[in-house]
Specification:
Blueprint lengths: L1 H13 L3 H17 L6 H13 L10 H8 E2 L2 E2 L16
Antiparallel strand pairs: 1-2
Length: about 90
């Protein structure tokens, strides 16, 4: 549990995989709420929901700016997984 919290926190601070880490943080907060813990967890669920919704724009700051063009996103194939253009096949745009 503690390792997951640390990994999610560091990734969010660095701006790495912001949408995915915000979703995992929301899952973690939901588990705390369903376990009966009272505190700021419902507020953090709302914040992580806003981060998930803003994931497409979250790549302007942080490491997502460099990582997402290489790996890709659900709406755009990255450079790593794109077929090479010199292979004679046409890449649809």
């Amino acid at each position: 549990m503690a390792i997951g919290e640390v990994v999610i926190g560091i990734a969010l601070i660095l701006g790495l995989f912001t949408g995915i880490m915000a979703f995992l943080g929301a899952v973690l907060n939901f588990s705390f709420v369903f376990a009966g813990s009272a505190g700021v967890n419902p507020a953090m669920i709302l914040v992580s929901g806003l981060l998930i919704l803003a994931w497409r724009n979250a790549g302007w700051y942080g490491l997502d700016r460099f990582v997402l063009p290489k790996l890709g996103t659900p709406w755009h194939r990255g450079e790593v997984f794109a077929p090479s253009t010199g292979s004679g096949t046409r890449v649809p745009t």
